Amino acid sequence: MTEMTDTAPGWLSPNELEAARARMPILYVDAVPVRVDDTGTVTHVGLLLRIGADGTVSRALVSGRVLLHERVRDALIRHLEKDLGPVALPRVPTSPQPFTIAEYFPTPGVTPYHDPRQHAVSLAYVVPVAGDCRPRQDALDLVWFTPEEAASPLVQQEMEGGHGTLLKQALAHVGRLS
Predict the structure, then answer these.
(1) What span, in angstroms and rounded, lies between the C-alpha atoms of 152 and 43?
(2) Domain of life, per the record (predicted)?
(3) Confidence of residue 120 (pLDDT cuts 50, 70, 90)
(4) What top-level class would CATH report for the domain 24-174?
(5) How far is 153 from 158, CA to CA, in rounded Å?
(6) Is 167 in contact with 61 (CB distance < 8 Å)?
(7) At residue 45, does pLDDT exceed 90?
């Protein structure tokens, strides 16, 4: 037996993650980054441009796992900073409340949300960001859309796994979907 030093508590090895995904739902957070005006009205929605493992290009929300012993708020901030950069300045409340809970299934059609890797439960948030956003990690670009553009069929067809549905729910939640 070899000794392993845990340098990143809460992270699973790829094999451990695959085994966990096969046996239980995994907790995620989804964040819809928005720009707001002085009255708090959403004026723009930020969507990431990503390349999938299969080489397809799609638009996506900020999304990621919650780690063991990590508060949901901390996971939100970590994923926002990871995808939007360290000076995005997300305004996450002390006690954030999701606008919905999305259940992703590996079987298409069970819900509008699909993740072929796993059954995942995601707490979804609308998060105003005030700083300079520069995509990082596996994101190619970040584009700001007006709510009308984001809800358009053209943008919606570029989103996979139910993120388009989640985006429309977020826009309805903030009163910007007509």
Answers:
(1) 15
(2) Bacteria
(3) very high
(4) alpha beta
(5) 9
(6) yes
(7) yes
